[in-house]
Automatic annotation (TrEMBL):
Keywords associated with the record: Iron, Iron-sulfur, Metal-binding, S-adenosyl-L-methionine
Organism: Kitasatospora kazusensis
Protein name as annotated: Radical SAM core domain-containing protein
InterPro entries: AKG_HExxH (IPR026337), Aldolase_TIM (IPR013785), rSAM (IPR007197), rSAM_sf (IPR058240), rSAM_SPASM_FxsB (IPR026335), Sulphatase_maturase_rSAM (IPR023867)
One Pfam assignment: Radical_SAM
RNA-binding keyword on record: no
Radical SAM core domain sequence ranges: 1-238
NCBIfam families reported for this sequence: mod_HExxH (TIGR04267), SAM_SPASM_FxsB (TIGR04269)
SUPFAM superfamilies referenced in this protein's UniProt entry, alphabetically: Radical SAM enzymes
């Protein structure tokens, strides 16, 4: 995973003597042997390393914080050189978000004018009112720093500098009055407040004063949270907003919460690469990597075991953490706070009890129904006939923006509604009346259920009279939507294989068969004698739909409860055990980060349209298998592969089928009466035209996947690089050949010809990427052999 955040140490000393400082007052002593200020050589090489990394990973933005010690001690000239070196080195198309974090006591007019000129945002540390701030933030001789920090804030609040004011950072001390601290910070009109728990470990635990109970930090934060909420949340608070986001399955805004992988590296004044500064609180030398800007690339740093450990998400947490009901919000707490001599970081946070109590308090006060987050709001209606010409051209090149894929989803939802009406109106008056009422009073909630991919699959089965054509599903859909809407209702629902299914919500294990009465209200629902409350967590008879919350605000369901999920050509897995669920979550996080980094044009549509992943059973001999069902927009089936890159490849490949299927529902790309069979270079059997079109379109993504990997291996040898070159040579040849077969078929409509032209244009750049004579020769030989076998077995062609 590439780094996008860099902390550049400008000065290794400080003009204050804060007794809670992790740099000078905790376990690490490496600051004693480092230069006071960063040198020009270190600045220049640091800028080059960051630029090299940004170019290799095609980063659109890098975030750099000038830090210390106290960075203002470096002086205006050195700060200017840092900004100029960074901007000079970065490649075109990569923006620089440059900030400085300071205690503020030296922030005068000259510095503000410099930061205005160089566009450097300023964050300040202050612990609240004077009494609270002076508890820790004093000069070495005991003098208060509070007045000078207030003067610095006032400078930043002036109209000419207000745009530089990035926010305030406050370290929590439970002996300070939480209301006084919060009110003092809000009075300074900050654009953001960041509360930090004091750095501590199991070896050096945080203070817990007598008489404050077992979770004083939770109680302190809860008091502030209540005051903040009562005031209408007048300013963003990073910790509180992160809890809200992670409880909704979104990404965190801070390293100290959530499961998002860390993507930060520190550059010290001597050019050493270090892990997060907070590790200085664990033991002497804890942040060290042994790497520096002169001898090592950032990719080498990213492969350091400590970096990888901090990017391992749920799989990297202790067993106690993984079983915790708030782990996806807490994330195990800050990595440094887990340390204990003897077993390292394989522990819960030393603030575990506080985090659990605070997060559950927030959860209970903001809890949604017992359901997972709804699908995105309804998109704007698509134009008559489906998509605009511009959107079709965009899709033809293999891509699809979030807006375009939302348009596809809206059209698919409309189609599902029409199918539902064809199946259900008049078939079951009780459930139909409930659905109709929900459509009037809670349409978005109903859409969230009807947008479930397997609803359409079920409706088609009903209309075709195929397996799974059971009208009892109509009652399940109505019940699920009513539960999500917290509607009072009562329905009799079917019991299937000993369970009551509620699509998008989960299933309740009741045993037996037949039917059971289900009632719902604002506080939850009851199945027979089993009560599932609005705050019920998984356990006993209750098996909710489980979701993976991935970086970049994408949450995807791992569907292992709905019987209709068996819509793919490969059998679906049963309910995933906890250990396998954790492996899925970790693999998906890695795969998603790879897609966002290497295939950003595919990532937008994937996040917008792929709501459901159905785990499949492994293929024969452990072969990787995946599938997309033509009647299940928004879902793909995948057997978890051995590596995250292959999972990324399978996801983008199958979602291509999902997108094209949605296009074909509303747009004629070829003559439906054409019954000929065509040669598909990747298949041994002749294929109908739609199958060839589908395969070609899916392989646009496959070609780009391997193309990006070949570019990453440019100039390098080794098995992985040679494999990527052979794969690119193979798939670009297959795709280009299939495009020409489609174009020459004579069966395409004018729109289909235009769509094929778009696929040709998308393939062309990859045909120019050098892969070497060996890979080209191997690909050509394999293609010739495959064609010869096909001609021998199926000599009839188009």
């Amino acid at each position: 995973m590439p780094f996008t955040q860099f902390v550049l140490k400008m000065h290794a000393r400080c003009d204050l003597a804060c007794d809670h400082c992790y740099v000078y007052e905790h376990a690490d002593t490496s600051w004693r042997g480092r230069p006071r200020a960063v040198s020009d050589d270190v600045l220049k090489r640091t800028a080059e390393r960051i630029a090299e990394h940004a170019s290799a990973h095609r980063l659109r933005t890098v975030h750099v914080v000038l830090h210390g010690g106290e960075p203002l001690l470096a002086g205006p000239a050195l700060l200017r050189r840092a900004a100029e070196e960074l901007r000079r080195a970065l490649p075109d198309g990569c923006a620089l978000d440059l900030r400085i974090h300071t205690n503020g006591v030296l922030l005068d007019q000259e510095f503000c004018e410099l930061f205005d000129e160089l566009d450097i945002k300023v964050g300040l540390s202050i612990d609240g009112d004077r009494a609270s701030n002076d508890r820790h933030r004093r000069y070495a001789d005991g003098r208060s720093s509070h007045a000078k920090v207030l003067a610095a804030v006032e400078r930043l609040r002036r109209p000419e500098f207000r745009h530089l004011y990035a926010g305030l950072l406050c370290t929590v001390d439970v002996e300070n009055d939480p209301v006084a601290v919060y009110d003092a910070l809000v009075e300074l009109d900050p654009p953001r407040i960041d509360f930090l728990l004091p750095h501590a470990t199991w070896d050096e635990p945080p203070k817990r004063p007598a008489g404050m109970g077992g979770t004083p930090y939770a109680d302190w934060l809860r008091t502030v949270y209540e005051r903040w909420t009562a005031a209408g949340r007048p300013v963003p608070v990073r910790m509180f907003d992160s809890v809200h986001r992670t409880l909704r399955g979104q990404s965190s805004l801070t390293e100290s919460l959530g499961l998002d992988p860390a993507d930060l590296v520190v550059i010290e004044t001597d050019g050493s690469f270090e892990q997060a500064d907070s590790l200085k609180t664990a033991y002497d030398g804890a942040p060290a990597t042994g790497f520096d800007v002169f001898a090592h690339s950032l990719d080498e740093v990213a492969a350091h075991p400590g970096m990888l450990e901090r990017q391992s998400g749920l799989a990297g947490l202790s067993a106690e953490c993984r079983s915790c009901p708030v782990v996806r919000s807490c994330g195990g707490g800050l990595y440094a706070h887990r340390y204990r001599t003897g077993d390292g970081f394989a522990n819960p946070s030393v603030f575990c009890g506080d985090l659990l109590r605070f997060i559950t308090t927030v959860r209970d006060r903001t809890a949604a129904p017992v359901v997972v987050p709804a699908q995105p709001d309804r998109a704007e209606p698509v134009p008559a006939g489906g998509l605009t010409e511009a959107q079709l051209d965009e899709l033809a090149r293999g891509y699809g923006s979030a807006e375009t894929v939302h348009a596809l989803a809206a059209a698919q939802l409309g189609l599902t509604r029409r199918l539902l009406a064809a199946v259900g109106s008049g078939a079951d008056s009780e459930s139909w009346e409930l659905l109709t009422s929900l459509d009037q009073h809670a349409p978005q909630t109903l859409d969230a259920v009807l947008g479930h991919p397997y609803v359409r699959a079920w409706a088609v089965r009903c209309l075709q009279g195929g397996p799974g054509a059971d009208l009892g599903t109509l009652r399940e859909l109505a019940a699920a939507a009513a539960i999500r809407a917290r509607r009072e209702f009562a329905l009799t629902v079917p019991v299937r294989d000993g369970a009551v299914l509620l699509p998008t919500v989960g299933r309740v294990l009741v045993g037996g068969a037949g039917e059971v009465r289900l009632t719902g209200d604002a506080g939850g629902f009851t199945v027979g004698e089993i009560r599932i409350g609005a705050d019920s967590r998984e356990g006993g008879p209750w098996q909710p739909v489980r979701r993976a919350a991935l970086a970049g605000a994408w949450t995807v369901a791992l569907e292992d409860t709905d019987p209709q999920r068996d819509s793919h050509q490969w059998p679906a897995e049963d309910r995933l055990p906890e250990a396998e669920l954790l492996r899925w979550a970790g693999a998906l996080q890695e795969a998603w980060e790879l897609i966002r980094r290497d295939l950003p044009e595919y990532a937008q549509g994937l996040r917008a349209g792929l709501s459901t992943i159905t785990p499949l059973r492994p293929g024969p001999d452990g072969r990787d298998v995946s599938a997309a069902a033509r009647q299940a927009f928004g879902a793909v089936g995948v057997a978890r592969p051995r590596t995250a890159p292959i999972l990324a490849l399978l996801l983008v490949h199958e979602f291509q089928h999902v997108k094209l299927g949605a296009v074909l529902d509303f747009h004629d790309l070829y003559d439906q009466s054409d019954d000929r069979r065509y040669y598909a270079p990747w298949r041994p059997d002749p294929r109908p035209l739609e199958a060839l079109l589908q395969g070609t379109y899916a392989h646009l993504a496959v070609t780009e996947f391997w193309g990006t990997r070949v570019r990453a291996y440019d100039g390098l040898g080794g098995e992985a690089a040679e494999t990527a070159r052979l794969q690119l040579a193979t798939w670009r040849s297959h795709t280009a050949e299939a495009v020409e077969t489609l174009a020459g078929s004579g069966a395409l409509t004018p729109l289909g010809q235009r769509f094929t032209d778009g696929m040709r244009a998308a393939t062309a750049p990859w045909l120019e990427v050098p892969v070497g004579a060996r890979a080209e020769a191997q690909a050509r030989a394999a293609a010739a052999e495959r064609l010869a076998r096909w001609v021998a077995a199926a000599p009839v062609g188009p």
